[in-house]
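Justification of resources, computational component.

The compute hours requested in this renewal are based largely on the per-chain cost of generating structure records like the one below. Each record pairs the submitted sequence with a full structure-token output. That output is archived, and it is also reused by downstream analysis tasks.
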Amino acid sequence: MSIAQDARLQPGKSAERPATAAPTRDFGHPAVWAVAVLLVIMPLIANGFFLIEIFGTSLILGIVALSLMFLAGYGGMVSLMQLTIAGLAGYMTAVLGASGNANISLGWPWWLATPMAIALATLFGTIGGTLAVRTEGIYTIMITLAIASAFYYFTNQNWAIFNGHTGINSVVTPHFLGIDWRADIAFYYVILAVAALCFGAVSYLARAPFGLALQGVRDNPRRMATLGFNVNAHRIAAYAFASCIAALGGVLQVWNYRQISPGSVGVERAIDILIIAVVGGTSRPIGAFVGALIFVLLRTFTLDFLVAIGLDGNRFRLLIGLGFLAIVLFSPDGIVGLWERLRGWSGQGKAQAGGERHG
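The structure output for this chain reads:
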């Protein structure tokens, strides 16, 4: 019997969770293709601000949130260290590459510094995952939160490698083939290509034998262990894969702002990734990007609105928190889950109307 067949033999809950058992619908729905076409032609209809600060930033945050979505949605593991992994990749890109801090950065070419940064961040996330899988539930969350908090304080106090609270500025971005790949349009397409690659990888892996086995481990680890699967090995492999995705997002983040500091990897930012994933929905890979877009729109325009009416701009987090509570209470599967239920009700209504006409 194959891994895929074994992973489908889950009692009870797996049959009740089609949202994670059938991720292929992300590709088949016409709305996904319409959004994909819109994203491809976005440079034709959006200026530099919307292209990078809204859509580019949303895609980058969506990539990091996608790594959390994969762990939580398919593996049942909530990790608060995904932004930390992205932050380590960003720091390593700045340290190994070239920047305005010549006394810290080693000056490697981008094509060497970037893969090394991703590899180191992936290794870091895998080691953290190895520790986290020994626990369950709230203890997993606390371990990953402790790792995120420790990394923030380490970067804030370490001057020899991370330049302390000042961070590393003027990070050099790629130039090759005669193109400045940090120019707005070129960089947007780089972000879009990486986001599409990560989205496709998660969607494919979720229906591959490993992904099906991981979902079986999520639903009934004891049953999967009885069937001969190494539960912890599957979970650690999931952390390694998710860490690689988060690392890609971290590299794009440091290229986007050309700098990185401890504020970029703080616990508050790590919780933002959790909010993004939950608001968008952890049942579908597309949910990470939907949640990221909503978050960026609220962070950008609500801040200006509150300042315009004379209120403290930081109160935009209150609105985000209220929205988060509303989503958790009324749609545990996030915006994507709410949309699918609305489509289901609409389809049932049309079917009933058609039946009445035929009757």
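The longest strand covers residues 175-176. The longest helix spans residues 48-75.
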